[in-house]
Amino acid sequence: MMQGTIQNRDAFLNQIASRLGRERLSAPLPRPAWQYQPQDEVLKDATVNELVEVLKTHCLKIHTSFVMTDLQNLPETLEKTIADYGNESIVTWKDQRFSDWGLDPLLKDTLPRQNIDVYEWDYTRGAENIRQAEKANIGITISEITLAESGTVVLFSDKDRGRTVSFLPKTFICLIPKSTIVPRMTQAARIMREKHLQGNNISSCVNFITGPSNSADIELELVVGVHGPVKAAYILIDDL
Amino acid sequence: MTMKIGTGQFKERVDQGINDSFMRGAVAGAQERIGTRRNDVISELNWEEWRSHGEEIRQHVLEHLDYYLEQLSENVAKRGGHVFFAQTGEEANEYIQQVVAKKDAKKVVKSKSMVTEEISLNTALEQAGCEVIETDLGEYILQVDDHDPPSHIVVPALHKNKEKIRDVFSEKLGYQLTSKPEELAGHARKKLREEFMAADIGITGCNFAVAETGSFSLVTNEGNADLVTSLPKTQITVMGMERLVPTFEEMEVLVSLLTRSAVGQKLTSYITVLTGPREELDVDGPEEFHLVIVDNGRSNILGGDFQSVLQCIRCAACVNACPVYRHVGGHSYGSIYSGPIGAVLSPLLGGYDEYKELPYASSLCAACTDACPVKIPLHELLLKHRQIIVEKEGKAPISEKLAMKAFGLGAASPLLYKMGSKIAPMAMNPFTDGDKISKGPGPLKAWTEIREFPAPNKERFRDWFKNREKGGKQ
């Protein structure tokens, strides 16, 4: 990665230091020991199954359908969900887990034979991916971290996991391994920070997605589906 | 669009607001609905501790702002992003115009950003030959309606009803459906989707930058910021210099405070954390990323009595709690920053000449201070403004000055005071109706236009007392 440029910094920061009545800070600043940490209290003692219940209940509030399944029944559940949302064109990430979870027969054979286009993200094809995502009816992704409190799935972009798979299609389907559930955003932030401190680059785009796109900009009336997906469905997979 | 909106004097703007019954109904309804949702969603938490944590994070960052901005810029550059520090709005605009020229850009899509409005970026972009499209639904409606100014920080088109929006869409966009919000939004979706696919540059604001990783977060419900940052080849993010946190962990806390306070949601539909341009083999996301960090008067607030206003995370909870905003509406403030936060911030960024009335547009009830998720003592800052306006600036409202002067003169001499209090009932007689005044003269006029004023008592206390000592009537 080429190093970027920085312009006009010194005068700008000197002005700040002078307003604060001191010299510029140069020594590394340790992370402060905060006096308050209320975020740790939320769902502190909840078991995984209790977190699943919290997630499920919250899905009602965020206009998102929720279905639980296990690895054995996943292909059937996904097939049914796809049918519920119109059985039209599909775009997915390129992700080994789809195969590992036994979804190849469905995605690579059953659906195409029903004349349902299934496009798998392929970075070597460049902008064609975006065209495919734009015309797809359904986008399928996988949650890396799932927040029970707010019903949020967390997606990390990379060359095989395009950002637009979750934004451009009309319906957003997210597969959620049960093992990814945490109480709230606090734990996700820590996982991301850990990753960074261990020397890994954080993805250029991390999406916290909570249900479909919506707006209340007209007379404060809720409209579901504005720029991104109009519908959202979570499929929780019991992988524990 | 600049920070200043409208042209009339403060009093005219307030008159317009007070007489706009749709707007007043909409504002009252919004305050009720957002307020109820907020209360529900904060009642699940130990909210006071959350507020204290938010406050300590924001205070710490402001005290060490130069350090964190330096760290942020290093980390953005490390990930291949370009950072430009702009002391003024003009510097920021010039830099962005240069990027536009270099990219030969013709179409810019934007997601909602207060700081870009503050520095009039859209005008600068149009001067550079760009078409600028606001993609937040509320902002888009305002833009289509000949750049009608926003009236609320979070719900910018709150003052418009759906029939009006339908008429605007019909006239400007060839819209042919009904005034149902979902049909209006559906039309905007279709139009804007075309714009997203064709745009050369995407411009966003910044909710919170993260110093440790050079990342920044965007908070929306519509997902428009995601399309702005996924599709165009070049991305420019503009941030007010105080909008940052040390690490992801503090970012998370402030995002949680923001979404609960702004719209009563645990999290909004889309919270996006972006770091640098896209990676080498990525297909979507920008190839080039610029971060513009704007001072524009903020550093002058540091180190002074008003430093705590820079803790603001732009949630508008104070706006939604304010009884004055409820009656006069957002346009009365004459600034894109309305409500209590606007009454504190606008005079600091735009000067007392322009905004000296705003600190008086408050009953000092402190509902704003209670609502603030990062504990800015808003009503105390309003009072501080008044003190400065009167003591240092000599800009007290003229009626207050006259009244104080007259009282000072009259009270300075026992004789004058005696005479004044004696003739008051007689002087006010022509305006008095029983024991009240309903059409007062001069400085009383503004008061009696909307309520009555008690008439001076016919008998002065001193006379009554003297009379009583003589055994007169009790």
From TrEMBL, chain B:
Residues that bind [4Fe-4S] cluster 1, according to the entry? Answer: 312, 315, 318, 372
Enumerate the spans annotated as 4Fe-4S ferredoxin-type domain. 309-376
Is 4Fe-4S tagged as a keyword? yes
Task: Give binding positions for [4Fe-4S] cluster 2.
Answer: 322, 365, 368
Q: Which UniProt keywords apply?
A: 4Fe-4S, Electron transport, Iron, Iron-sulfur, Metal-binding, Repeat, Transport
The residue ranges of the Lactate utilization protein B C-terminal domain are 385-470
Q: Does the keyword Electron transport apply?
A: yes
Give the LUD domain ranges: 69-294
Q: Describe its function.
A: Is involved in L-lactate degradation and allows cells to grow with lactate as the sole carbon source. Has probably a role as an electron transporter during oxidation of L-lactate.
NCBIfam families, sorted: LutB/LldF family L-lactate oxidation iron-sulfur protein
Q: Which HAMAP family match?
A: LutB
Task: Give the record's family classification.
Answer: Belongs to the LutB/YkgF family.
What is the designated name of this protein?
Answer: Lactate utilization protein B
